[in-house]
Amino acid sequence: MATENGPVMVAEPVVALERPVALPVQTALVPRSPSVVARIGDGLAKGLLLSTGAAVGAQIAMRVDAQLNPHPLPHQMAALLESPVRLAYRNVGDALGLYGIEAGMTTLDLGCGTGLFTEELGRMVGPTGIVYGADIQSAMVEATRKRMVAAGLADRGALHHTGAYSLPLDDGCIDVAILIATLGEIPDRLHALLELQRVIRPGGRLAISEEMPHPSYMAGRSVRRFAAEAGFVFAGKTGNPFCYHMVFTRP
What we know:
By secondary structure, the protein is an alpha/beta fold. The chain is 36% helix and 22% strand. A 7-stranded mixed β-sheet has the order 5-4-3-6-7-9-8, sandwiched between helices. It has a two-stranded antiparallel ribbon with strand order 1-2. The longest helix is centred in the N-terminal third of the chain and has 33 residues, at 36-68. It starts with a strand and ends with a strand.
């Protein structure tokens, strides 16, 4: 714009500059190097998974082998029979009470192992009773012998290093025979049960118990089928699929 005195300079309005605003950082999009702790944790997790997988794989392999080629638990693994984990669900006295063990009876523990049940049988039958123990592994028989001696029960019966097919016992001499996690270890189960039919007296009882952690575990329906084929009469069952007890009578 011009005036008489000359051009007038018009100051243009000053525009205030806005201060730069810091943009938010998308932390999720910013790659970070894993810390040492994170790397260790990841390694431990992977190691645990591998160890668990290996343990599960080994357990499956043992079960498949036990089913295809039945065999006793190796005596080198005898400590498992008395591990705290097993004893947590295996109350020896309670189990034998279910089978009707009484003083003065003659009993048989077939597949006696380390004598865990044999020893308690010796106590329950008392000084007038008899307990026989039998196992196909000499090391197990020796372990049971030492146990019975230590418990002061060595004079209440006899131990036999023998299989299940030909027991060194007279016909009809047994009141109660027990098989604890044993039947599944025997290749010819019917043969073994027929032999038990021979040594158990008429009216006597056969008690069979199975536990799922054992590689040779047998389902209850299979046990009943074999027992019926051998001529035993089903008398009752207690427990659950994890650990059960069955009692049969000999006609």
